[in-house]
Amino acid sequence: MTLSIFSRRGCLGGLGPAAIAAGLLVQGLAHPALAQPAPAARPHTLWTLTADRVLHRYSAAEPAVEQASRPVAGLPAGDPVVGIDYRVAYGQLYALTRSGRLYVLDTDTGEARAVSAAATAVPMDRGEVYGMNFNPSADRLRVVDCAGQNFRLHPLTNEVVDADPATPGVQLDGRLAYAATDSGAGKGVCIKAVAYTYNKRDPKITTNYAIEASQGWLLMQGSLEGATPVVSPNTGQLTTVGALALGRIESVQFDIADRDNDALAAIRLTPQSPTQLYRIRLASGASTLLGTLGQGAPVLGFAIEP
């Protein structure tokens, strides 16, 4: 005799979802893939670098819990880091120091290896706050500062990418300023962080987002991927996306995950505030607090592991 989960009074009665799914499998009425719950998305792994030159690892699912730490060796004294980011195509974590030198950081050992003995020709010791992020399409490092400076670095040579090779000397990219048609046109701007999206359907296009700290806004540097006419981030043109609704921001580090374009930021609202992790909606700028990052110490760099 064949037993059926439907044999009793011909109905599902008080059976729960798990029992129903199991019964359907026995009866051959359900495909196993349909009966199994969807796998949970793997939480992003986050790295921060603090002023004491220690790398810290966290999970975005539990930002308050430090998973590991690595003291960094090989960075020269008196040359603080201004940002870190992954060169995603190669899985390497880079650090940029105030002297303009690039280093590759080994997250297993904490060793810092200089890309080049020479520093960039761009003066970076003026006390400005810098933001940096790799362009996944061009494989170049975008660097901006609160004073409006905007340029790119080559990850293998540490050299500044010349924006106009036809002109003698090395030309930087266009200074950061709102587009003439934007609501912020004519206003001052203080960009403290930038991050690029990843387009899996067309890796040749990307969008560069920026966080303006004096008002707490999410901006686009250049045009949205796929939009026409195309405006390069090299122009420095900024357009407003929307408010983070946090007010003025003291410090911010920003990154966008290559896996799913999840935008996360390590933000300190005041000099006395703890560093907290936020998720940012790229379509609107709206932010959601995920929790304090570790013990809340100030961070010099923040990156999402690919």
TrEMBL record:
One Pfam match: DUF4394
DUF4394 domain: residues covered: 55-303
InterPro entries linked to this entry: DUF4394, Quino_amine_DH_bsu, TAT_signal, WD40/YVTN_repeat-like_dom_sf
Protein name according to UniProt: Uncharacterized protein DUF4394
Lineage: Bacteria, Pseudomonadati, Pseudomonadota, Betaproteobacteria, Burkholderiales
